Amino acid sequence: MAARDLNIIEKKFPEYMQKVKKNYKRNFLLLAFDTAFFTFSTSLLSQDTVLPGFLSQLTDNPVLIGLIPAIFNLGFFLPQIIASFITQNMPRRKGYILFIAIAERVGILMIAATAQATGMLSPAVTVPFFLISFTIYSGTFGLIMPAYSDYISKAIYKNRGIYYGVNQALGGIIGFAASLVTTRILDLNGFPFNYRLLFWISFAASFVSPILIANLKEVQFPVQPQKKTVREFLRHILGIIKVNRNLRLYVFARQLIGLAAMGFSFYAVYSLKTYGLSASILGVYTMIIIISQSLSGILWGYIGDKFGYKIPMVISTILILIQGLIALFVNHPVSIMIISATIGFVYSAMYICHANIIFEIAPPEETSLFIGLSNSLIAPIIGTAPILAGAIIEGLGYPQLFIAVAVSAVFAFVVSVFGFKEPRDIETRSA
């Protein structure tokens, strides 16, 4: 089953596609290695293991710890509608992508500076500064995605699922090295020196990515959306939401999946508090997540290219349900390792299927808009879910969180299976 948007582009703009094909191998490799090296840097700043572990050294408040994934998800998803508005008036994407990529490094620098100040300044100062730094990092991460995804949707004109799978594999190899570095540093160096070293390494490694981006080749898409004012842009968005039923159902399913994933950042902290494990176990959990994420990427990519990307999404809801049940009924440290593996599978599936589903739902000339719109609509639920998880833990305890995860996963499964329709099975586009 070929991706619908690529079939449309091939038929309407054959000359454009010929130019794109000439740059395919170059862009494929540069984009893949960009993802891989950026994965190394971000793995040292894992919002599921490393950063909650760092913050738990400064505060015991689970709500504050829950702010880490909340900030990341809100920062990643919410600004994307703003980025969509900015990029709609740009005939090319590369310059904008490079600018935001450089801005991302400012956030990483500030996170490293926070660790550097830890021990010299009180937690009352370092905790807010860390959260502000992480917000800047997450926000720039979100601002880049509509343009970056749009670029991929045009440059990678075939086997996009395999492309994303290769990204996962390369990211896994380098991320595995990052997890070894994380484990070694956290195990051999005391707090806060261990986190200082970890974050400065992340900052240094992050500079490979802009170099790769600068060497990408871009072919301007023949059709550009009509330039709109803010009011016209908002009116157009409301029209898309009203008319495109399948987009609404997909976003609802993703919101439920995000709600069900509220426990991702608490499994590691739960194991530290429950089983009395050392901080170095965070590196092991990160390693397991990265390995499972990379190994499953090719599988999800193959399934998506051949059968459609709804299947990986549905399987993700089942895996999240399994996580909640394991955490609830298996009282052993190994259970968190199994959960870490399923987290990697879910991350991989959502990484591959989300962009590709939107590529196929959206008109080719409005890919940036649909990416930004869908992610911004998902943001409020995904962003607040970890805060809700922290509140559940503080008020009721971890078992109640695991029950909430399982129940949310069931609802996500129902909407994904019986509500959202595979785009390739729909004969005509709605918007």
Short structural description:
With 431 residues, the protein is mostly helical. It has helices spanning 4-12, 14-22, 24-43, 50-56, 62-77, 80-88, 94-117, 123-155, 160-188, 193-205, 208-214, 230-243, 245-260, 267-275, 281-307, 310-329, 333-361, 367-395, 398-418.
Descriptive report:
It is a single chain. It is built from 19 helices and no strands. It has 431 residues and is an all-alpha fold. It has a single domain (4-425), classed as Growth Hormone, Chain: A (Up-down Bundle), CATH 1.20.1250. Helix 5 packs parallel to helix 8 (123-155), helix 14 (267-275) packs antiparallel against helix 17 and helix 18 packs antiparallel against helix 19.
**Class per helix and strand makeup:** mainly alpha
Looking at the overall shape, the CATH architecture is: Up-down Bundle
Can you tell me the number of structural domains? 1
H-E string:
HHHHHHHHHHHHHHHHHHH
